[in-house]
Design goal:
- The protein has twelve helices and 22 strands.
- A hairpin with a 2-residue loop joins strand 19 and strand 20.
- It has a four-stranded mixed β-sheet with strand order 1-14-16-15. The protein has a four-stranded mixed β-sheet with strand order 3-4-2-13, covered by helices on one side. Strands 5-6-8-7 form a four-stranded mixed β-sheet.
- It folds into two domains: about 210 residues, Enolpyruvate transferase domain (UDP-n-acetylglucosamine1-carboxyvinyl-transferase, Chain); about 160 residues, Alpha-beta prism (UDP-n-acetylglucosamine1-carboxyvinyl-transferase, Chain).
- By secondary structure, it is α/β, with parallel strands linked by helices.
- Helix 9 runs parallel beside helix 11.
- Helix content is about 30%, strand content about 25%.
- Bound molecules: shikimate-3-phosphate.
- The site of shikimate-3-phosphate (S3P) has 10 residues, from helix 5.
Length: about 425
């Protein structure tokens, strides 16, 4: 089915399992006592690389029809793999598992693809060396990570100054095999799935939130219990369809079973502020995570908005698709403080800016702020999109076909498999 400026989004849609939660449940179930069952695990390549890594570290994981069975091994008993562990494109995988390994007495080399090999790792490893792990990075910054963990890690207090759930979660995973109290201070805008899952699995963890920061205390004096876990739908994947529906008056979409954690749904508020007609129904709590259904019944065109730096972490992965929305919304939209966007799977700030220009939208980067001059006219399109194999850039500029006179040219669409292998199937199911 053609997908172009005449397309609307319609139907009842179940987004694929959440990527962040899928990584975490594989890792934590791998350290729990007994057998865990996982349903709706994301089948994306990033998560499958974490699954393979856990297997190489000694955890037995079996697929049985629609579920995965994970037979946990106790913290501190990871096996030393014979070969390197390859995390492909996944920053979450390599960073979280570095943390897990750092408090085990094993030596491992962690590698990734060309994009991951350019991403900063020191932000994680500088914390892990303090507990006693020995770590070498390429140019003292990038993967491969050569890691010699310690069986005798030191319990410390950490102060994290970059708003990053990956840094926090790496430290939290190192704490699983650290005797004594581990304390963490971080920005409360980062995703808190590791905390919620540890609570659900009976771990000794205390969390307190101040106005700006979150304070976490962990003690490894209680076992991690096995769990039966149904991974909720990924709001970051659903964001492509929710945004597309808001962009196009006449769209009517129901999104079922979406993770509705407040650290993940900043984009819903942004879309509502721009005029998106979005209603949240059936809110419920499952394993300490809020889950909901979302209804979009779009009647009007959108207007511009301004996002402050402090709100960016709440929608960090959705800035690419929100940039497409802003292009078709009347007025000047400003996204402030996008520094973290420059160190994602690609330099997303630069690629958004370049591709907007190619399709006929004016944007300006001022330091780390992105200014997008939106209007409700169709853009020229017919541009060759430069995605550097970044899944979210590719999917965002595919959705941009809805606001272009001529479809854009996107070569090699295979990288959607990192986070959303069924993206194009869903496009043909829910667009008409
Ligand atoms: C993630 C955290 C975020 C996010 C990434 C997934 C996670 O990265 O951008 O897609 O699962 O912890 P940072 O922690 O680097 O902000």
């Amino acid at each position: 089915m053609p997908f172009n400026n005449k397309s609307c989004i319609k139907g009842t849609y179940f987004p694929p399992g959440d990527k962040s939660i899928s990584h975490r449940i594989l890792i934590l179930a791998g350290q729990a006592i007994g057998k865990s069952e996982i349903y709706n695990l994301l089948q994306g390549e990033d998560v499958m690389n974490t699954l393979k890594a856990m297997r190489l570290l000694g955890v037995q994981i079996k697929k049985k029809k629609d579920k995965y069975l994970v037979f946990g091994i106790p913290p501190g008993s990871l096996f030393e793999p014979k070969n390197v562990i390859d995390f492909g494109n996944s920053g979450t995988g390599i960073r979280l598992i570095s943390g897990l390994i750092s408090s085990n007495n094993i030596s491992v080399k962690l590698v990734g693809d060309a994009s991951l090999s350019k991403r900063p790792m020191k932000r994680v490893t500088e914390h892990l060396t303090k507990i006693g792990a020995k770590i070498e990075l390429k140019k003292n910054l990038f993967p491969p990570i050569k890691l010699k963990g310690t069986g005798n890690s030191v319990p410390l207090s950490f102060n994290i100054t970059i708003p990053s759930a990956q840094i926090k979660s790496a430290i939290m995973l190192s704490a699983l095999n650290t005797n004594g109290k581990v304390k963490i201070k971080e920005f409360k805008t980062t995703r808190d799935h590791t905390e919620n899952m540890l609570h659900s699995m009976g771990y000794n963890i205390k969390v307190r939130e101040g106005s700006l920061h979150r304070f976490i205390e962990m003690k490894n004096d209680k076992e991690l219990k096995s769990i039966k876990y149904n991974v909720p739908g990924d709001p970051s994947s659903a964001a492509f369809f929710i945004s597309a529906a808001c962009l196009k008056p006449g769209s009517k979409l129901i999104v079922k079973n979406v993770l509705f954690n407040k650290t993940r749904i900043g984009f819903i508020k942004t879309l509502k502020d721009m005029g998106g007609n979005i209603n949240i129904i059936n809110k419920r709590k499952i394993h300490n995570e809020l889950v909901a259904d979302i209804k979009i019944d779009q009647k009007n065109k959108l207007s511009s908005t301004i996002l402050k730096s402090k709100d960016i972490p709440l929608q960090i992965d959705e800035i690419p698709i929100l940039s497409i929305v802003a292009s078709f919304a009347n007025g000047l939209t400003i996204f402030k403080g996008l520094k973290e966007l420059t160190v994602k799977e690609s330099n997303r700030l630069e690629l958004i800016h370049q591709n907007l220009k190619r399709i006929g939208v004016k944007s300006v980067i001022k330091k780390y702020d992105l200014h997008i001059y939106g209007n409700r006219y169709l853009k020229d399109g017919a541009a060759v999109i430069k995605h550097n194999y970044d899944h979210r850039i590719l999917m965002s500029f595919f959705i941009a076909n809805m606001i272009c006179k001529k479809n854009n040219i996107i070569r090699d669409k295979s990288c959607v498999k990192t986070s959303y292998p069924t993206f194009f199937k869903h496009i043909s199911q829910f667009s008409n």
